Amino acid sequence: MGETISGLAASAIPISAHFFPDWGEAIDGDLWLIPVWGLAAAAAFRLLFSSPFELWKEEKERADRGASVISEIGAGRPLRFTMLEFRFDYSNGPTGPLTEIRFSHENVGIHLVSYCLEDFTIEIDGQIQTTTPPPQTVFQQPATRGHFDCRLSSPITIPSFPSTVKVGFSYSYDTVPPTKVRRTGGVLRYVLCGPQLGDPVEGFWYESQIEE
To answer: In terms of pTM, does the model score above 0.85?
Structure first.
């Protein structure tokens, strides 16, 4: 903007000289330059003071819009599932049955979240076991990660590896203070490469996903 005003001020001199050739002579000395220098001073003031303020204002508005979007995302869908951990019973040796699943998650919002694991099904090589989770409400602080352990209704001995495992689950959750009950979950597919601690686990892949 400042450059535009300066350009107009500079172009005023030859234009005035063209249309009013006697204009400069009618004014003593350099008094006719006063309006031109006034325009130039106004342009310099805008360039030095107004333009940086306008740039700062635009950046602040952009940052405020970004913070608002992040806040809305956190308030709308704050609980994020992150991973599963398959936990085996090694009390009788280096290998053992699958006894527990650990669900890991993250609260990406700015409010405390309360959640409950509603249902849980595990399928290993076509054999399905449904486990009723304990009616336990868990609280997760904002911007933190946590986990929830769920024991199987009965231990599962996996006959051979690698083995394909599908886990279906759903959480219900709400913020504190409460705003709206939501559900998240799905069916995940993994490939277990061995029963021992440290054996690789491939996945996960979503077979289906729930966001309500």
So the answer is: no
Q: Are 85 and 101 in contact (CB under 8 A)?
A: yes
Q: Which of 147, 146, 156, 184 is nearest to 168 (CA)?
A: 184
Summarised one tens digit per residue, pLDDT across range 54-85 is: 665 676 666 555 444 444 444 578 999 899 99
- In this structure, the number of other CB atoms found within 10 A of the CB of residue 174 comes to 19
Q: Is the peptide bond before 204 cis (omega within 30 degrees of 0)?
A: yes
User: How many whole angstroms separate alpha carbon 134 and alpha carbon 100?
Assistant: 13
Q: How many residues does the chain have?
A: 212
* DSSP secondary structure letters along 186-202: EEEEEEE--SSTT--EE
| Domains of the chain as residue ranges with CATH | 2-75 (no CATH), 79-211 (2.60.40)
